[in-house]
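REQUEST ID: PR-0412
SUBMITTED BY: lab tech R.K.
PRIORITY: routine
TASK: structure prediction, single protein chain
INPUT:
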Amino acid sequence: MELFDISNKDELTINEKPLFLTGTTKNLKLTVSPNVTASVVLSQVAINNLDICVLESATLNIDFIGHGIIDIKENFSLGKNAMVNFKVISPYPYKDELIVNLNGANAKIEGKYLVLSKNFNSISNVIINHNAKNTSSNISNFGISLGNSEIVFETIGKIAKGMAKSSCKQLSRGIVYGTKSAVISKPILLIDEYDVAANHGAAIGEMSDDELFYLMSRGLSHDEAFRLILSGIVNPFLDSLIDQENKNVVEETIYSLLKR
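STATUS: complete
OUTPUT:
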């Protein structure tokens, strides 16, 4: 991937060349040209406001990998037949406000969050506006809360009247370990059209001491058992990263949180 420093830049047009973005800027607008497939990794970046415009029939694959405290506002705008696949991985304090506008017919967005908190809090706020017919959104949230920490996922899906054949899906999964840890899901569906598909689900629970004890009785250390249980959530994210060369660094950071 080509390394690109966004420091002091406010606009960037993306074509088919994969980009690895680093640097610091207050406001950044990314525009994906029509009819191209683009891949972008944001890593070791600091951005206050991020605007992403995906033009007609373009596809954007984007990974946001947190390497420090994140506090960001994001706006995605998708044109006709546009597609966005995004992933967020953050093992640091995380706060975002994401607004997605599906403005063109057949626009689709697939989003996955993996947020890990240990003795700090994180919150993700996502709003999906289905502004055209036959649009699709699918947001999956995965949280691992350890020690004295809280993770909040608030996901709002809006389908306006007349936006028929649209689909809005939300899912939250969470594992908590510790009496003062929590993963909170706040799914909201605001539907004003009958001819649509809309659903949400959540599965959040505590890690069982019995599971840990069982694995430890088979010869694993506590940290090894802990890691094995959580690997079912963490590893699929790591395996799907755009930039596999960065995988080892991300993996080391994540699993360092899982040690006592």
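NOTES: Residues 2-207 form one domain.
REVIEWED BY: pending
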